[in-house]
Amino acid sequence: MNTADLDLNLLRIFDAVMRTKSVSEAGASLGLSQPATSFALAKLRKACGDTLFVRTPQGMQPTPRAQTMAEPVRHILSVVETEVFKVSEFNPFTAHRTFVFSMTDIGEMVFLPKLLKRLRVEAPNIVIKTVTIPAAQLENDLESGAVDIALGYFPDLKKANFYQQRLFNSSFVCVMRANHPVVQKRLSLKQFLTLSHAVVRAEGRSQEVVERFLMQNGLSRPIGLHIPHFMSVPYFLADTDYLVTVPLPAAVEFAKATPLKFFELPLKNAPGIELKQHWHARFHRDIASKWMRKIVYECFAEHDARLPA
Fold it and tell me: How far is the C-alpha of 129 from the C-alpha of 120, rounded, in Å?
């Protein structure tokens, strides 16, 4: 028998005849007419090389071949119904699963505290793993499932197979130590362009927005320090006179670490960024992924970051 030509419906009809001992009743239970059921049964008999059922006063009785087939056929149909086409269930409170987020160190500061607090209550066994992935690799990792969600500013994830959901907008602010000797109650454009800056060159792309804006407007500033991470910013600022331009949510977090001063950029039409969550189309309908994206959205949609008083 060539199983490549097997119609799964033939097994359903076989099982129905085994249960009902009647071709007409078997057809009725499957929504088929008697002629259609008889035709299908004939095809199955030919495929098996056996009559399978014999008409008797007690109904259609199975042959020995049919009796040996009955249990495997029932098992096959059960697997199809309960495993192949079963609607997945996900109970976040009992689930044990690791979700991998791609985010920068600044993303960890902004997103993790609130997200973890929410998960501690609703999904205590869920594990969160964060990674920092180069832009060129992130697409592949989202597609393969190595990363579940990219959370933050990822302007390169625009291909057709990627979904994105806006969370909130963020402006940029200038940060310096609280007792900065030059800047007092306001930051002027002249001060911004003449005082020495520290610039973060992180894997994230947010800083490029400010650099591009300054270049397009023919503006430049002296840079005394280049660093690859945001995490050290509040600590070296405490003992230097550098200025650092960062997204507003990061400034809010820095204020918790050390006394700092914050000023809006003294630039006309200063740029901002949109913070989003991104995921691949392969996992768009995955029930666990949908749940996590819902949690992220509920935590951060229209997130209201404000300058510390």
Answer: 15
